[in-house]
Amino acid sequence: MKSETGASLIEAVVALALLGIIGVTFLGALATTSNSRLIADEHASARILAESQVEEIRKQTYAFSYDPVPIPAEYPGYSAVIDIDNLRNGNIQKITVTIIHHNKNITTLESYKANR
């Protein structure tokens, strides 16, 4: 009988250790998933903002510089930088829109505009 009592104590300790390992692994995976979702949301928002900046530039008349369109209040911490490279004697422009979130470049979108 005494050997059976010791075995059940060892079994309980092993079971608790396994349960602890499984719990820590699960919580680590949960944290990683949550972080990945936040990064994906940040990139999706930046892509939407970059596309809207390019669309607004395309609507404007041909110029040698463009001001960024104000970022909507739904996107706090985001900003846009627009770079223009004039090509082919100034008849074609390469427009590069960079979206920044909390001082970190998130996405860059390039487009072209022709002087007609």
Keywords:
single chain, 116 residues, alpha+beta, 3-stranded antiparallel sheet, 1 helix, 3 strands, 27% strand
Description:
- The chain is rod-shaped, with a radius of gyration of 27 Å.
- The longest helix is centred in the first third of the chain and has 58 residues.
- The protein is of the alpha+beta class.
- The protein has one domain.
- The protein is built from 1 helix and 3 strands; from the N terminus they run H-E-E-E.
Low-confidence stretches: none
Give the total of beta strands: 3
Large-scale geometry: rod-shaped
Number of separate structural domains: 1
Query: What strand line-up does the widest sheet have?
Result: 1-2-3
Termini Cα gap: 97 Å
Following the backbone from N to C, one meets helices and strands in this order, namely HEEE
Topology:
Layout: H1 2-59, E1 78-87, E2 92-101, E3 104-114
Short description:
The protein is of the alpha+beta class.
